[in-house]
Amino acid sequence: xxxxxxxxxxxxxxxxxxxxxxxxxxxxxxxxxxxxxxxxxxxxxxxxxxxxxxxxxxxxxxxxxxxxxxxxxxxxxxxxxxxxxxxxxxxxxxxxxxxxxxxxxxxxxxxxxxxxxxxxxxx
Length: 123
Fold this sequence. Notes:
Layout: H1 2-9, E1 16-19, E2 29-32, H2 35-42, H3 57-78, H4 83-99, H5 111-122
Antiparallel strand pairs: 1-2
């Protein structure tokens, strides 16, 4: 979605701030703060902007959980050796994660089932 938003902005970002972070990732925080970008993000019904606190764990919980599952369910078990193997494994896992794997937090429904149910209810 970020790629889609950025392509729609077509150079309208008035300010992009890259702040030096702490820890193992020296450039850990990127904020897109232009009014045009924020308006575009707000135009999506299923997207919320969260800029209410530095380092809020809840902001990253979904992606952190995804990466934990990906590493333990695929990466550590399959141990790919080339970039093309990693790409193929990642693509396969994302499809499995979204369409086949039930999630405890969704009462063992898939993310796709939740997304399309919410989309149908919104229409």
